[in-house]
Design brief:
Hexosyltransferase; eight-stranded mixed sheet
Length: about 350
């Protein structure tokens, strides 16, 4: 299923080679450390005091991932207690070892492990979606977290790459998952649940009874607390794959990796406060237009949808809420390119002036 590249923080600060960092355009994050009130920790990923966070890591969304990690550390009461699990695609243009070096150079004291996701595990199960980006095999890595992560990891928070936290992640970690439930996520029961499946699904006399007496609500899979012990025991990876196989034969949904989760867990999700996923800030999956916040307090901002804040900021066409993402952005590449361009222009101008003066004098 995967290969693991494990790395722990270095006392000497790790790989902070400025030349390497400059090449990829990221500045080093501040060094976030535990306060005196934080309990001691061991180097084992099975330490019960650790908060486990899983995220995918790829070259296209790397800038978003670095901002997300930065936001988690910045607001954590005990940042050294956070163990990150990064899942990278085997065919990504940036190799897993290079991705590991980038993470280490940006966050020298971070404790993390990077896994190489074998995309052939899912590639034959993926069907076309309304947006090509949703067909990336890495979007389906969350289905395999029970297999990918060490068996000692019994609980994990899964986070998408296009979000930032503005609250302490330990509060999300402490959410209780009731007996008989596997995952926790904010639910949105006012949403039109029927639109996530095709007419052929709802018109099928067998399929449309799949929810039985359950009352399914929409939930976004970009923020989930997952009980991996129950996940493994219940073989939920296989249950999701069964729906994906059916989708290949009889198109029952249009929206990538989300519908299988709705089919398996809809009506059986531990509801978490909406503050932990203010989603949809990227607009819809077609236009990516600007959207506002849902009513209520905010602990996590999520740019799900087509529009991404770093793209709109670079294009100088930001939505108002994109400015809330910007303080966590560690990417300096564009400024450095412009700085080098100005230096080169200055050198060319200086060279021309030297030639001009020597010609006349």
């Amino acid at each position: 299923m995967c290969l693991g590249i494990r790395t722990f923080p270095n006392n000497n600060g790790g790989l902070t080679d400025s030349g390497f960092n400059d090449h990829f355009g990221f500045s080093e994050a501040p060094d976030y450390r535990n306060g005196v009130e934080c309990p001691s920790i061991t180097s084992s990923s099975g330490d019960p005091s650790l908060v486990h966070v899983a995220m995918t890591l790829d070259s296209e969304y790397l800038r978003g991932s670095m901002a997300a990690v930065h936001s988690v550390l910045r607001h954590a009461s005990c940042p050294e207690h956070i163990f990150f699990h990064f899942i990278a695609g085997e065919f990504d243009p940036t190799s897993p070892r290079v991705l590991t070096r980038i993470v280490r150079s940006v966050f020298p004291s971070l404790t993390f492990k990077l896994y190489v996701f074998r995309e052939d595990a899912v590639i034959n199960l993926i069907s076309s979606s309304i947006r090509p980006a949703l067909e990336n095999p890495l979007n389906y890595a969350r289905n395999y977290l029970g297999d990918i992560l060490d068996p000692t990891v019994k609980r994990v928070i899964y986070l998408d790459s296009d979000l930032v936290l503005v609250d302490d992640i330990s509060k999300l970690w402490e959410v209780k998952i009731s007996e008989g439930k596997i995952i926790g996520a904010p639910e949105y029961c006012h949403a039109n649940f029927t639109k996530y499946f095709t007419d052929s699904f709802w018109s099928d006399p067998v399929l449309n009874r799949v929810f039985g007496s359950r009352k399914p609500c929409y939930f976004n899979t970009g923020v989930m607390v997952m009980d991996l012990e129950k996940w493994r025991e219940g073989h939920f990876r296989n249950k999701i794959e069964n729906w994906m196989e059916l989708q290949r034969k009889n198109r029952i949904y249009e929206l990538g990796s989300l519908p299988p989760f709705l089919l398996v867990f809809g009506g059986k999700v531990e509801p978490i406060d909406h503050r932990w996923n203010q989603h949809g800030l990227g607009g819809d999956n077609v236009a990516g237009s600007c959207r506002g916040l849902h009513p209520g307090p905010v602990s996590l901002l999520h740019w799900s949808g087509k529009g991404k804040p770093w793209v709109r900021l670079d294009e100088r066409k930001p939505c108002p809420l994109d400015y809330l993402w910007e303080p966590y952005d560690l990417y300096q590449g564009k400024e450095k390119v412009q700085h080098h361009q100005r230096q080169e222009q200055h050198l060319v101008l200086h060279s021309n002036l030297v030639g001009y003066s020597s010609y006349f004098f």
